[in-house]
Design a protein that fits this description.
Blueprint (H helix, E strand, L loop, with lengths): L3 H17 L15 E10 L6 E4 L3 E6 L2 E6 L5 E6 L4 E4 L5 E5 L5 E8 L2 E7 L8 E7 L4 E9 L4 E8 L2 E7 L19 E5 L5 E6 L2 H6 L7 E4 L5 E4 L5 E6 L8 E7 L8 E2 L6 E6 L3 H5 L5 E9 L3
Antiparallel strand pairs: 1-22, 2-3, 3-4, 4-5, 6-7, 8-9, 9-10, 10-11, 12-13, 13-14, 14-15, 16-17, 17-18, 18-19, 20-21, 21-22
Length: about 300
């Protein structure tokens, strides 16, 4: 006959295990096994949506290398534009590239709206050596107001976000032949996800798992944004999918929990913090679409849990 204390012990162990699977870790990330899908709810033409998109309460911001356009979220009407100098590059015999004309804004990427300001990740891609900065706009006047320079650091800064009292971002490295002497442009395995304090000082960093790096081919991590569920959502340069991730409990490799198809073509994404569960992404028009008169687009989708 089984001892009653053993039965009670097993029961309490089971209860503890169930509770353990529901815990929130140190970064506020719920640990679960849920599955999701994205349901598209809107799509807008936006010729500037070549790199990324940002979003606030009333507008979305289509981002190109040296241009940001402000659009009404409801109507898709363009209401304002900021545009920097046109940039051209000079390719050296050894494969490296140099800035020939334009700047100082060279390659804008993902954006996030925080405390009334629009923050954009920026780099000098494809110039070697790689430099990065954070560029900041007043979205009301669409004027560039300040920046923070990382200089030469971990690679090309491609996205940033504000979550749980910290700044977060991604420094991309590539297997493109734009590096020193025509070598790898940083090597994609050196891509890093970073956590920063209020002074933009990096206090922790992680790398990406092989399963993601293989999907990125010669490119890297282009977008990232913390979701309303407490998970980090990442994108590559081209794949039409988003990777739902969490920080590891040990070690330094980001954990991928789920790959979710999304009507995008990689690049920057942005969760709409005014409408929880709504995510913005971009579809870059390919050469055939451009020849047919089509342009880049911004997609709006809703995250839905799949009930089994």
């Amino acid at each position: 006959m089984i001892n009653r204390s053993i039965i009670l012990g097993l029961r309490y162990t089971l209860i503890f295990f169930i509770l353990l699977t529901q815990i929130i870790d140190a970064e506020g990330q719920p640990v679960d096994g849920k599955k999701h899908k994205f349901v598209q709810i809107a799509e807008f033409e936006a010729p500037e949506a070549n790199q990324a998109v940002g979003v606030d309460n009333s507008y979305f911001y289509a981002i190109d290398n040296t241009k940001i356009a402000k659009y009404d979220k409801k109507t898709g009407k363009k209401v304002a534009v900021w545009e920097g100098s046109k940039v051209t590059f000079k390719k050296l015999p050894n494969g490296e590239q140099r800035l020939e004309k334009g700047g100082p804004i060279i390659h804008l990427d993902s954006a996030v709206f925080v405390d009334g300001l629009l923050y954009c990740a920026h780099s000098n891609y494809p110039i070697w050596p790689m430099t990065s900065s954070i560029e900041i706009w007043d979205p009301n006047s669409m004027k560039h107001i300040k920046n923070y320079s990382f200089g030469i650091l971990f690679g090309s800064f491609t996205w940033l976000d504000r979550y749980n009292g910290y700044w977060w971002g991604g420094f991309a490295n590539y297997d493109q032949p734009y590096g020193e002497g025509g070598g790898l442009y940083g090597n994609k395995r050196n891509t890093k996800i970073v956590k920063m304090n209020n002074e933009w000082q990096i206090i922790e960093s992680w790398i990406l798992p092989d399963e993601l790096l293989e999907k990125f081919e010669k490119m890297s991590n282009s977008g990232g944004s913390w979701g309303p569920d407490g998970f980090l959502y990442l994108t590559g340069h081209d794949p039409a999918e988003v990777y739902r991730c969490k920080l590891p409990e040990a070690g330094s490799i980001i954990e991928v929990l789920e790959t979710i198809p999304l009507n995008i073509r990689g690049q920057g994404i942005a969760w709409d913090r005014s409408e929880p569960g709504i995510i913005y992404g971009i579809i870059r028009a390919n050469s055939q679409e451009k020849a047919a008169g089509k342009t880049h687009r911004v997609t709006v989708s809703k995250l839905v849990e799949i009930k089994e």
